Amino acid sequence: MKIIAVLNREGGTFRSLDIERFCASATEIFTRQGHEIDCRPTSAENIVAALEQAATKGDGDVLMAGGGDGTVSAAAEIAWKTDTALAVLPAGTMNLFARSLKVPLALTAALEALASGEIRNVDIATANGRPFVHQFAIGFHPRMVRVRKNFRYESRLGKMLASVRAIRMVINDPPSFPVELTIAGKTMPRNVSALAFSNNPYGDAPLPYAPDVETGYLGVYVARALPSENYIRLMADILLGRWRRNKDIEEMTAREVTLRFPRLRRNANAVVDGELVPLEDEIVEIVIHPGSLKVLVPRSDVPELPKT
């Protein structure tokens, strides 16, 4: 098996690594398992072009993406559209899809697990045709990301602290907007502060990620329009891993969801796998595609390697 590894030099962990030494280590690990790996470090500015070139030229059997959730999401879209197997090398802040795939978060352990891994088919979701592997979110999350962009940070810890500052600012003036959700032919009008749709339902861990990416269902999460004090309580419940007990959260599952925004603002945004994108359409169709994404994952018949 030949792996083309495209590594985002500016992705969290890679910023502080000797990336040439890392590539040499990756080559040794994959060669030991009888595979070939072509390591291609690149800048964040050129990461999408490098991923597209690696997938469309057909030089490899697996497209490995090294970086954060944004890099992984871009790679997943390219892999899905070109029917190429994807491997996720977690080098970002949260690494949520890597957690879903049970890839160890320590990079050397991840290389070892993937080098002896297996190809599986997992689910991927789309919002108006745009793929996502973790989450599509509207309302509170996009506003937080937009506020966070005003802060400077150079590290994973700095990004986390900037997120905390942004959350505190947004809580003082949480969003509120009307939406109509249609699931299985039933339309449900809601006035909400936040909507989130996950590629498979979230688990019970404090971090919001799906422990199983083969259920064939979207997770649907609706936070009703909240005053600041209720949002403070919700944020605390999320951090403590007890958000499912919060009365302001409505949780559902679905294979398809249609959203209609009666009063969509001109500058509205959504967040797709952690990246801020314009929300331009009054109607959004969210669909899960069961088993449509090929991924290289650690073997299921060996003990799971450490996450940290």
Percentage of helical residues? 25-40%
**How many domain regions?**
2
Largest sheet: 15 strands, mixed
Number of helices: 8
Protein name: Diacylglycerol kinase
Keywords: Kinase, Transferase
GO cellular component, one term: cytosol
GO molecular function, one term: kinase activity
Written overview of the protein:
The radius of gyration is 19 Å and the shape is globular. The chain has a 15-stranded mixed beta sheet that branches. It has two domains: 2-116, Probable inorganic polyphosphate/atp-NAD kinase, domain 1 (Rossmann fold, 3-Layer(aba) Sandwich), CATH 3.40.50.10330; 131-290, Tumour Suppressor Smad4, CATH 2.60.200.40. It has helices at residues 19-32, 47-56, 69-82, 96-100, 107-115, 140-148, 156-171, 228-239; strands at residues 2-8, 36-42, 62-67, 85-90, 118-127, 130-132, 135-139, 177-183, 186-199, 218-224, 249-254, 256-260, 269-272, 275-278, 283-297. It is built from eight helices and 15 strands. The longest helix has 16 residues, at 156-171. The model has no long low-confidence stretch (mean pLDDT 90). Strand 8 (177-183) and strand 9 (186-199) form a beta hairpin. 40% of the residues are buried. It has 308 residues and is α+β, with helices and mostly antiparallel strands. Helices cover 29% and strands 34% of the residues.
